[in-house]
Structure formats: C-alpha cells, structure tokens
Amino acid sequence: MSPSPLNGIKVLEFTQIIAGPLGCQFLADLGAEVIKVEPLAGEPWRLAAQFIPTESKTFIGLNRGKKSLAINLQAEDSQQVIHRLVKDIDVVVINYRPDVAQRLAIDYETLSAIRPDLIYLDNTAWGREGSLADRPGYDIVVQAFSGMMSSVGKVNEQGAPQVGPAYADTTTGYSICAGVLAALFHRERTGEGQRVETSLLINALTTHMSQFQSLPVADQQQRDEFLHALETARAEGTTYGDFLHTRDAIVKTAALGNVYYRVFETADGAIALGALSASLREKIRKSVGFEHNRDEPEYDPLNPAQQIIDQQVTDTVEKLMKTRTTADWEQILTGGGVPCAPVKFVQELLSDPHVRANDYVIELEHDLAGPIFMQAPPWKMSKSTLDPSTASPPLGRDNDSLLKQIGYSANEIEDLRSNGAIL
After folding, report:
1. Cα(186)–Cα(360) distance, integer angstroms
2. Cα(182)–Cα(180) distance, rounded to whole angstroms?
3. pLDDT of res. 83
4. Burial environment of residue 261 by CB neighbours within 10 A (0 to 12, 13 to 18, 19 or more)
5. What ranges in 104-239 are assigned the alpha helix state H?
C-alpha cells in the first residue's frame, strides 16, 4: 500500500465544537498531521458532559488522530509561537470571527505573509458578507434561519420547533475537508496558496436541493401561494405549529398517495420503503398486495377525487403493514426487489453485523480513557493507507514536543509555561 494521501501535510486547527473539528478529523484520517490549538482550559466541547476532567464523548468523537497545543492566544509570547509554527504549516483551518482573528494575529493576511503558499480555510456560521456576518452562530440557529428546521417540521408538545441532529455542522465538516483538498490540488499544480471560505449557512441551504431553487415555469404559482399564506399567517398571529398544516396543504399535496417512499409502522416497530420509479412502485404493490393507479397516464394527485382514493389506499396500506413484524416485511419486500430497511436506533449499530462486516467500526486506545469504539473514516482506498491509529489527544499533550520542533529550548518552554502562555 502507498502512504496516506495527505502524508507530509501539516494542518493548524483553530476550531471548536463540531464542523471544524470534524473537517480536520477527516484530514487526519487522510494522513495529515493536525495540530489542534486550544485555550488553556480546553475547547468548550471538551468541557461538555465530562466523564473525566477535560474529556467528553463529544470531543473524543471529533478529534481523533490530532495533536493538542494548549496555548493562550492572547499572550504576546503565544503569538510568536504560532508565527514560528506556521512557517512549516500547509493548511490553517479557522472558525473565528474576522475581528477575533485579526486581533490574535492569526488572520489570513498575517499568516500568508509568513507562509505565502498557505491554504487558509475560513469557516463561519453566516458567510463573510451581509447583515449577519459578524453574528455568532451555531448549528441550531442556522438550522432555524436556513429553513432546515421548518422543512423537518417537528414540534414539541407546546408546538415549538424541534431540532434534530447537527446537520448543518456535519455537512460543513465534509465541506471543510473538500475545500482543503481542492486547494491542495490547486497548489500542487500552481504553487499558489489561497483562502477558502465556507459556512454553516451555505451547507444547510445545499441540503434543500430543489426545494431551495426557483424554477418559475414549474413552481411560481405554488411559491406565490405559499408566501401569501405565510404573510397572512404572520399578520394574524398564527402559531408555528398551526401554520405547518397550511404549509403541508400547499407544498405537500402530492404526498397524499405516498405509500411508496415513506416509513410505516409494523407489528413490532417500523420499516422504511424507498421507491422512486414506476417499476419499484409496482414491486411494492405486488409485495404488499394492493392496487393503485399511481403510474397510469391519467393519474392527477391534485384532483380532489383522486385525493380521496389516495387517502383510502394510504389507510389500507398502513393497516396491512401493521399485521406483520418488521422482520417479516423486510423478508417479503427484499424478496420482491423493494429497497427497504428497518428503523433502528443508533445504539444498536455498534454491534450490527452489516456495519461490522464493512469495518465501519474502529477501536482506538485513548491515553486517559482506555479503549474507544467509533465510526471509521468515510472512505476506503485501494492504493492508499487510511489508518486513524490514535485517539483524540489529552489537553496540551503535545505542547513540549511541538515547541521543541520549532526551536524552543527546554528553558524557553518552561518560561512560556510560567508566564501563562502555554499549559
């Protein structure tokens, strides 16, 4: 096997929480040396639900394969450390506000003057322009603003919106990794470094796919109807939960007869079916045992008479699905060529035979916590080595070794520690 794809690439990470750490963990998985810069107390995700001091499951799950440099970036001596370190760095990943990066002298202009071919990945919540650019933001607020939360449309008992997993953060993690890889490829061909920008907002918008776009010839009437209804509802003080029903009536009318791409309750759980072609829908009808003219030329989901039929079909299929167990339906549907899967809980998957068969679980040894079982890298490569062999680092574990590599003596390191510049 060849070396890891990013063998020899050095990354300096100024990020915290999810998106930046996940993106840099992917870079570490691909073989880069990732140095995570943390405050002396540790980044906030270390401190959330600690099971031992400065260690949490959330932090460990996002920072494998990295080194930890615990340093007070506000100290003048610390800025000199960073500037000496960056001379040998290929990539900086940062998620600070512009004013913070400039104040700490770790902005693109400062660091690229030290290392001209530096790749500087700048991740923000909102993007660098516009009225929200300087506003702090996390996954939940971007999910709210981007329409992601309302698209899911779940509410709690009080009718308030509910938030699910950190989709904006995790998609941005992939975007960070992809942006760095593209910039490294550009540098390989041209010798040029550059600044790359991404944000939680653009990645959240990307998840909407065709729902975000406007195609007037296809959707202008529906869009106008929806926006008018929304304006009226807000003027009348309609609650969020109540307006979801209005939204669904306008935007999701065609879903009344959706017995082909949805989740059904079974006798002992639930099962998901996925059929997006006429041939697959016919396989569902044959496997489950019902008739429906969904794929006939005259089918019109907006016709009130058809909507009554569709609702009757939906009721029939829902009752049928509850007559057998999930395992029974999985066998029947799979035998009929229908894409399907049982609805599982994440806690089941660590020991799931299929997950294990694909080597999607890896075991690492943490310096303080012992054995860790977690998701494998999201790639397999036939010619290159991917070997996430180390767990996340304890806070400041690599301070001394990193500083010695850039020429600091033992006495100088001790002075920095005494002055409160490093842990």
Report:
1. 31
2. 5
3. 97
4. middle
5. 108-114, 139-145, 148-152, 167-190, 200-207, 216-236
What does the block give as tokens for 53?
């001091």
| Coil, strand or helix at 38 | strand
Q: Reading across the β-sheet that carries 340-342, which strands appear in turn?
A: 261-265, 270-274, 340-342
The CA distances from residue 258 to 225, 292, 295, 317, in Å, are: 23, 11, 12, 10
CA–CA distance, 404 with 423 (Å, rounded to integer): 15
Are the C-beta atoms of 6 and 30 separated by less than 8 Å?
Answer: yes
Token look-up 């794809």 returns 5
Are 77 and 419 in contact, with CB atoms under 8 Å apart?
yes
What pLDDT, on a 0 to 100 scale, did the predictor assign at position 256? 58
Are 340 and 275 within 8 A, CB to CB?
A: no
Give dist(CA 62, CA 15) in Å, integer.
Answer: 11
Read off the pLDDT of residues 113-152 as tens digits, 9 standing for 90 and up: 999 999 999 999 999 999 999 898 999 999 999 999 998 8
| Prediction pTM value | 0.94
One-letter identity of residue 339: P
Q: Extract the residue ranges of the chain whose pLDDT is less than 50.
A: 253-254
DSSP state of 3: P
182 in helix, strand or coil? helix
CA of 383: how far to CAs of 3, 5, 220, 278, 369, in Å? 9, 9, 49, 40, 33
CB 374 within 8 A of CB 361: yes
